[in-house]
Amino acid sequence: MAEGLPPFDPQWLAAEQMMGGRVVIEADSIEKTREKFVGIFAGLAPFIPPPTDAVRSEDVQLTPTQRVRIYTPAGETKPLPVGLYIHSGGWFTGSVEGEDHLCRTIAEKSRVILFSPDYRLAPENPYPAGLNDVCAAYEFMNAKAAEYGGDQKRKLVMGGSAGGNLAACVALKYSSNEELKPTGLVSACMASCDPLALPSDYKSRYTPERYSDAPMIGNSIMQQAREWLKVPQPEDPLYSPLLHPDIKLLPKTYIAACTKDPTHQESVFFSEECQKQGVDTDLVEWVGWPHFFWVIPVLPKSAEFLDVWCKKLKAMAGS
Fold first, then answer.
1. Domain Alpha/beta hydrolase fold-3: where (predicted)?
2. Which CATH class is domain 10-317?
3. Which residues are registered as beta bridge partners of 155?
4. N or C, which terminus of the chain has less Cβ within 10 Å?
5. Rounded to two decimals, what is the model's pTM?
6. End-to-end alpha-carbon separation of the chain, Å?
C-alpha cells in the first residue's frame, strides 16, 4: 500500500484477479500506448450490455471531420436538460464508441439529452485543437437544443479524466457568457493543473509518488500525455483550470475523486479552489478505487458511481 493512502477496496482487488492481474499503462510510444488503451476497452466489450430502446442515438456531422452522437431518453414529451459529455483518453486517445455504454446509462437515468462529440487528438493535433472541437460541440448543443427536444436554459457539461479536464475548461470558458453559461458541471478524475504551474500552497502538498501502486494509469503516462498535448504555457487556464480567473463564476459543480488514482490530488485541489471562491461544490472521494473504474460495467461500485453522477445532474438541472 502506498504510504498514507487507504488500501484498495476488496471489490477492486477481486476484479483485478478476474481480469488476470493489475493493468498499469506507463509511458511508451504513441502507437504502443494507444494499442494498450484500445486493448483495455476491447477486453471490456464482452461485459457491456447491448443497447436497448430506452435511449435512442443519432450521429450528426458538425463538420466533415467532426461528429457528435446525440442520446435521447425515450418516452419523454416535455423538454429535457441537455448535456455535453466529453470522452476520456488523456487527450491522445479515446472515442465516442468507447464510452457509448456510459452515455446511454447516464442519459436514461438522469433524463438528460447527451451530446457526445469526437474531438481531435494529440500529438497529431496539438492544443487547443481538441478544446476548440468540444467548444464547437457545446455551442452546437446550445443552438440546437430545442430541435432535439431539449431545454436550452438547462445546459450541463461533464466528463472524466481528460474529459473531466475539458469539461471544466468548457464550463469556465462560457461561465461569463449569459447565453452560453452552463447550469452544472460534473468532472471526475480530472487533471486540473500542470504540476509545473501549481500554486505554492498546492505544490507543497502535491505528492505524486504516493500513487506509485495505482492501477490503470501511472504517473509517467500522465506526464507523457501532457507532453503530447504540446501546450505552450503550462499556466494556460484553459488547460490548467485550477488557475482560471473566473472559477467563482462556475455553476453547481460535482467533483469525483478516486483515492487510488494519480489525478486524486488534482481533483481535490480543484474542489478546494471552487469552494474557496464560493462555488456550490460537492466533492465525493471514492476510497480504494482507481482511475475511471466505472467504465467496467460488471462492478457493483460502477453502478453506484453512475447513480451518484445522475443524481447530481438531476439536482443541477432542477429535475
1. 84-294
2. alpha beta
3. 82
4. N
5. 0.97
6. 42
The domains of the chain are located at: 10-317
Q: Is 299 helix (H, G, I), strand (E, B) or coil?
A: coil
Q: Which of 141, 146, 76, 138 is nearest to 319 (CA)?
A: 76
* pLDDT tens, residue by residue, 250-285: 999 999 999 999 999 999 999 999 999 999 999 999
Contact status, residue 70 vs residue 58, Cβ threshold 8 Å? yes
Contact in structure between 267 and 192 (CB atoms under 8 Å): yes
Nearest CA among 251, 224, 206, 82 for reference residue 150? 82
In 3-state terms, what secondary structure has residue 191?
A: coil
DSSP 82: E
Which residue bears the cell 506509485?
Answer: 212
What residues of the chain score a pLDDT lower than 70?
1-3
Q: CA–CA separation, 116 vs 133, rounded Å?
A: 11
State how far the Cα of 227 lies from the Cα of 232, in Å rounded to an integer: 10
